[in-house]
Design brief:
By secondary structure, the protein is mainly beta. 14% of the residues lie in helices and 46% in strands. 48% of the residues are buried.
Length: 422
């Protein structure tokens, strides 16, 4: 019990702390006006109307989550309608884009044929057909939005990413996986103990901490076949495990000090990645693993440091504004770091360049924690409370738009977005 209490107190300390590149949005104004989109589909037979409506609802939600678009759906056009007619009508409605097409089912599969029209430049951006098993129809909706965003924003959309998070009551918490929009939630553990802090390792594996054996141990789970194995249990206080090259970077206590270690797939400790008589947690690596960003209180308060891993240089402090900065997450394009700062009891989501310059506040709330980028560097997920609503949020770091995808007071501080397509 003392170990559990110590761990919880420690975590409270940390958590409180074709033409695929048409252009790239560089929005920094939170008052940015969303781009108008006419979602004018999808035509279907009467027997297929239900699934067509479901797909349409998923597309509308995805577009809303993105924060880039406002949607109108007052019209309906089949795939055979000439795109110039649809485009001219979209222009009259002051929509920059229109999406329309057909949906039908056959032999256990659902098919969608759709077109995307740019009414401003009077051209058809995309004419595509997709299919999936009926049970995976939501993937089709996510795919349509991701393809649309590739042409309208210059980046492929984030909606084929997945989320892993922990929730539960008291000492009983389990690991769950969902789609990026918070739907299709799957329970991964059911161990009647504390299972927390999931981290995506690749598209099929996550690590997490469990007290299944009485002391904190790190487990590795295969989400495809449900197999779970114990990865590391050599410390009375293990914090988290993330991917580091072909191994893991695991945070644990040894000799009274919390450092970050390189650990192989068999759970063998290979070397220290930090060596400090302090608390060092929350490692996040650049894509090539040449740099590690982490949180340390070696200067007295939690601050973010950077270490060059190629030469194992000493760490360089990169945050100086404020007394509490934590939860660094590096964007998948290796250009920015998102992190949490604490001021006067409020939490702030910040973004800056890797060298610490161009720092800007995206939004604020309470108990914001566990930042994680999707594979699209414009979107970050986190847990916390905003406007009295607690759960899992997605934020657009370009314009400050945020969306509560999982409203649940039992969500534990800890969420991770997969950096890979499903």
């Amino acid at each position: 019990m003392k170990r559990v209490l110590f761990f919880v107190l420690f975590m409270l300390f940390i958590s409180s702390m074709g033409r695929s590149a048409v252009f790239e949005l560089t929005i920094n104004n939170p008052n940015y006006k969303p781009t108008g989109v006419g979602l004018w589909g999808f035509k279907s037979s009467k027997k297929d109307a239900q699934i067509a409506n479901r797909i349409k609802k998923v597309i509308i939600k995805d577009l809303d989550i993105s924060g880039f678009f406002s949607v109108g759906s007052s019209q309906m056009f089949s795939i055979d309608t000439p795109y110039n007619i649809v485009g001219n009508l979209a222009a009259l409605y002051k929509f920059d884009y229109a999406i329309y097409g057909n949906i039908y089912k056959d032999s256990g599969y659902v098919y969608i044929n759709f077109k995307i029209v740019d009414s401003v430049n009077k051209r058809m951006l995309l004419d595509q057909s997709l299919s999936s098993k009926i049970s995976s129809y939501k993937w089709l909706a996510h795919k349509v939005v991701d393809e649309f965003m590739k042409y309208s924003t210059g980046r492929y959309g984030p909606f084929e990413s997945r989320l892993a998070f922990s929730k539960g009551k008291g000492k009983i918490k389990d690991i769950y996986i969902s789609d990026f929009d918070g739907e299709d939630v799957i329970r991964l553990t059911n161990w009647h103990t504390m299972n927390i802090i999931p981290k995506w390792i690749d598209k099929n594996h996550i690590t997490f901490i469990s007290y299944r054996s009485g002391r904190p141990a790190i487990f590795l789970a295969n989400i495809l076949n449900g197999k779970v194995k114990k990865l590391f249990s050599k410390s009375s206080l293990s914090i988290s495990a993330v991917k580091y090259r072909d191994h893991f970077a695991i945070v644990f206590n040894k000799g009274g000090y919390v450092n970050i270690y390189e650990v192989d797939k068999r759970g063998r400790v290979l070397r220290k990645l930090t060596d400090s008589y302090s608390i060092n947690v929350s490692p996040s690596f650049t894509k090539d693993y040449s740099k590690m960003f982490f949180v340390s209180n070696r200067s007295g308060n939690p601050q973010i440091y950077m270490k060059n891993m190629d030469i194992l240089s000493s760490a360089t402090r990169i945050t100086y504004d404020g007394k509490y900065n934590s939860s660094p997450s590096i964007s998948p394009d290796n250009k920015q770091i998102a992190y949490i700062s604490l001021h006067d009891g409020r939490s702030f989501l910040n973004v800056m360049y890797l060298d610490g310059s161009n720092n800007r506040i995206i939004l604020s709330g309470y108990s914001l924690d566990s930042l994680s980028f999707s594979y699209n560097p414009d979107f970050v997920v986190f847990t916390g409370e905003i406007d009295g609503r607690k759960g899992v949020y997605i934020a657009n770091i370009l314009n400050g738009h945020y969306y509560l995808v999982t409203k649940d007071k039992s969500v534990y501080n800890g969420v991770s977005a997969s950096a890979y397509l499903k």
